[in-house]
Every structure is written in C-alpha cells, then in structure tokens.
Amino acid sequence: MSRTHPAARRVAPVLVLVLAVALRAAFLTVGCLLLWAALPTALGWTPSTVVSDSMRPAVAAGDVVVAMPVPPDEVRRGQVVLVVRPDDEGYLLHRVHDTPRGRLELKGDANPTPDGHLVDRADVHGIGVLRVPVVGLPVVWSRNRDTAALGVAGIGVVLGALGVLRTRRYLATDGAAVQHTADADTGNGRSGRRGAARTTIVLLAVVTTAAVVAVLGLVPRAGAAWSGATGNAGSSLATSRYGCMDGSADDAHIRFGYNDPTGTSEPNRGSGPPGVLSGGVARSAGSCADSPHVILDGLTGRIRADAAMNAPSAFTVETWFRTTTAGGMLVGFGSTRDARSGSHDRHLYIGTDGRLVFGVWANGAARTATTPGTVTDGRWHHAVGTMSPTEGLRLHLDGTLVGTNTNTVTQQWTGYWRIGWESLSSWPAAPSDEHYAGALDETRVYLRALTAQEVQAHHDAGR
Predict the structure, then answer these.
(1) For residue 195, what are the CA distances in angstroms to 1, 146, 200, 201, 412?
(2) Fewest CB within a 10 Å sphere: which of 3, 127, 229, 254?
(3) C-alpha to C-alpha distance for 422 and 78, rounded to whole angstroms
(4) pLDDT of 282-326, one tens digit each?
(5) What is the DSSP string of 426-449?
(6) Which own/partner pairs from 113-117 qualify as long-range (CB within 8 Å, at least 24 positions apart)?
(7) Domain 250-461 has CATH 3.40.50.1370
(8) How confident is residue 462, by pLDDT bands cut at 50, 70 and 90?
(9) Contact criterion met (CB below 8 Å) for 437 and 325
(10) 96 — pLDDT class (breaks 50, 70, 90)
C-alpha cells in the first residue's frame, strides 16, 4: 500500500487552506458589492445596471450606478444625471454638457456629440453618486443573450460554493495535518466541524440574500438594465430597447429604430408621432452586435406614423433595407391612414426591375431618380432620398450619390408617412402589389434635405 510523503501531507492542507480563504473572500466580496448596490433603495435612491459603454471611462458596462434624488434647480453642468427619456421610453444616464435656456443638454463621455434632445430639469430622476463595478455583468449577458457567459458564471458560483464546503470539510477532518491530535481527544475536532459548517452556512446565506436583494433592488425599480454604446445618444433603461443601436437622434421628425422585441406600437425618437405596425410585420431580435429590425411579409406588412401632417417641401427619407424581392414601397407619403391613398408621392421604393427609385409627383408626372443597378441582392443597404427646393432630388445608396433630378416642385396636402406599403399608381416600374417584402431598420424622415456629409456619416455609423 502506498504512503503519502510526510512533506506532502504538510503542504497539501496549507494549499487547501489558501484555496478556502480565497473562495470565502470572493463570495463575501461579491455579496457585499451586491448589497452595497441594492441597499440605497431604502433611501429612495435608484440603482441601475449599466450595459453600455457610452459613459466610459467613468462608467463601464456591468457597473451599477446609484442615483440620488435632488431638487431640479440643484442640477449643475458636469454632473452625471439619471433622467426620464424624452420619448418616455425609460431613462437616460449621461453627463450634463450644457444648460441652454435653463434646460439640459446631455452627452455621453465616450460620445462625439451631445444628445439630440434637450431635457427639462423636472425630468431629472437623480444624480449619480455611487458606482459599484462589475456586479451587473450577469444582467448585461442576459440582455445580450450571452448564454455562454451566463453558463460559465453559474457553473463558477456552484463550483465555488462546493469548493467552500469541501475545503472546510477537509480542513475540519484532517486533524493530523492542521490541528494537534490532542484536539480530537478534547472534542475540538467535532466543534471545529460544527464551526466550519456554521461559517459556510452563514457565508452562503449572505451571498444568497445579497443576490436576492440586489435583483429586487436593481431590476423591478427600473424595469431592466441600461443600454447604449459608444457613439450613441443615450443609455436606455427600458427592457424592450437595444439603445446600443440608437445612434444620434439629431433633428429627425420620424426615427423608428425597431428596437422593441414585441408590440404593435413603435416609439419615435424623433419629434413626430409614434408608429403603428400591422400584423404582417415581425420583429427580429438582436443585440449590440446585430441590430434588431423588422421583417415585412410582402402581403399585409406595413407601418405608418400615427398622425397627419402637412406635406413638406424640403425633406429626407432614409432607411436601411435588405431584400431579394423586386418591387415594394420602402417609405412614402399618402393622404390616408391605412387604405390606398388618392394623393401620394415623396416615395422611396424598389421597382419591378430591382432598382431603387426616389421621387415626387409634380406637374402631372412622377419626377424620379433611380439607381443604375439592382438592390435585391439580400444584403443590407442604406438608402437616402433628399428633396430641396434649390437642389432638387438626390438619391444616395450606401453613402454614395447615385441619382439626381433637377425638379424642385412638390405638391402640397395633408397626409401620413407610410412605410412598407402605399399606392404607386402611374409611377415608373411600379409593381402590381406595392407591399415590400424584406427587412427594414432605422427608418427616418427629416423635414429638411440632409447634406452629402450627413448622409455619409449616417451610413458610416451603421444600423
């Protein structure tokens, strides 16, 4: 029978002891951090988990930020504030960049430009006063559907707990290596094991309690985690949004990002009305690596702005699209809410020849600009059409000007912005069924003509 070398018998318990101390310290540290992040709720403060890097280096994804309520008139430039989003879709966490006309202009520390919307002081929910690092990473992984990271973390917690139990049991029973044999004669071995068990139970209870308190304190209050990313306008606290894809809101009238995972109402990050989705529109989930978008079935799928407006003389229509089907409306303007419109133009659509068309109806005919090639290759494309009373029509594809028309005349009436379907009667290469079949993302309408530099910047920013 083999015998363990005496030196090994002396070293092994020391290594086990070091491991046990390290595991206990890790568990206690995590538990204390979780409690530290959650307990301020008792004071009426708001902790929330950050899943964005738009505030680096001050705040990183996975940190928990605690906001303390303050009177509106005490908010100062340079403070990090938690505010109600201008579109009422959760909260924003950014720094006060300026205070024009008594309102607040916010900016993420890692963002190149300020946010597009000014914020009223009354909408400030609190100022950031405490940052607890990394404890919110599981929330980040969950929102990004990173099951691998969640699985590894869960296995690590289980193995760590088992490690605490096993190492304590080993140290409590190996009296020859760690304790004097006389301890066993006096009963200290049994009392040591009981003490170890009590310590382990207390340790695990602290961690479990901290986790429960943290979840109750961090999630329900805000409804979810922060989202947003470098280069984006804001961090969103609504569970249904992927703010990391939102980009700068600037002065868009309509800004549909299609970031909600469910629902038939589409929030508008621009200044205009929200959107309404029909039953033929399916939402496609995504993350900060692959932006969420919508898929229209080509049969009944359509989206409309939920309020009428006067047709603008200068405007821009913009969207990302992906399709393999020729024919279908991307964005247009019509005189009715849901039916085919008698008056309709300002269209951006794909003709039956697979080419992209943009135009207006003027002097009894369609005045259009068209791409030289087809766009039905199944890849994402960025389409922008601009109309200016001085420069006429300009059509951009993937950041490049590809078509123009010198027409500067437009018709005037009241109507609705329509997406995915509208009448194309009498327009060139018009399909028999104008429903678009394919994916859409980041659909926008501006009440001015974007410059070529702005179009290029939007394309470079991506979806």
Answers:
(1) 34, 39, 9, 10, 84
(2) 3
(3) 47
(4) 999 865 546 789 999 999 999 999 999 999 999 999 999 999 999
(5) T-TT--SS---EEEEEEEEEESSP
(6) 113/248, 115/233, 115/234, 115/248, 115/249, 116/233, 116/248, 116/249, 116/250, 116/251, 116/252, 116/269, 117/86, 117/249
(7) no
(8) confident
(9) yes
(10) confident
- Distance CA(109)–CA(230), nearest Å, equals 9
Question: For 119-166, what is each residue's pLDDT tens digit?
Answer: 888 888 788 777 767 666 776 666 666 677 667 766 766 666 656 555
**Which residues 6+ apart lie within 8 Å of 150 measured at CB?**
138, 141, 142
- Here the tokens at position 212 are 């429960």
Cβ of 211: how many Cβ atoms within 10 Å? 18
What 8-state DSSP symbol labels residue 310? E
Please tell me the predicted confidence (pLDDT) of residue 223: 27
Q: Which residue has the tokens 């990004």?
A: 144
Domain boundaries 1-246, CATH class: mainly beta
Starting from the edge strand earliest in sequence, which strands make up the sheet with 124-132, in order? 46-49, 64-68, 124-132, 80-84, 91-98, 104-107, 118-119
Q: At what angle do helices 147-173 and 188-222 cross, to 10 degrees?
A: 160
Q: Where in the chain is CATH 2.10.109.10?
A: 1-246
- What's the CA gap between 127 and 401, in Å, rounded? 45
Compute the distance between CA of residue 315 and CA of residue 226 in angstroms, rounded to an integer.
33
- β-bridge mates for residue 393, sequence order: 387, 405
The candidate with the shortest Cα–Cα distance to 416, out of 319, 361, 315, 343, is 343
Angle at CA 441, nearest 5°, toward 96 and 291? 70
Given a contact cutoff of 8 angstroms between Cβ atoms, the answer to whether 34 and 213 are in contact is yes
* Residues forming CATH 2.60.120.200 domain(s) in the chain: 250-461
CA atoms within 13 A on the CB side of 59: 34
Beta bridge partners of 49: 64
**Of residues 69 and 116, more confidently modeled:** 69
Candidates 265, 267, 260; CA nearest to 278 is 265
CA-based R_g, the chain, Å: 30
Q: Is the pLDDT of residue 218 over 60?
A: no
Summarize the chain as % helix, strand, coil (round to 5). 30, 30, 40
Please say whether the beta carbons of 131 and 64 come within 8 A.
yes
Q: How far is 376 from 381, CA to CA, in rounded Å?
A: 9
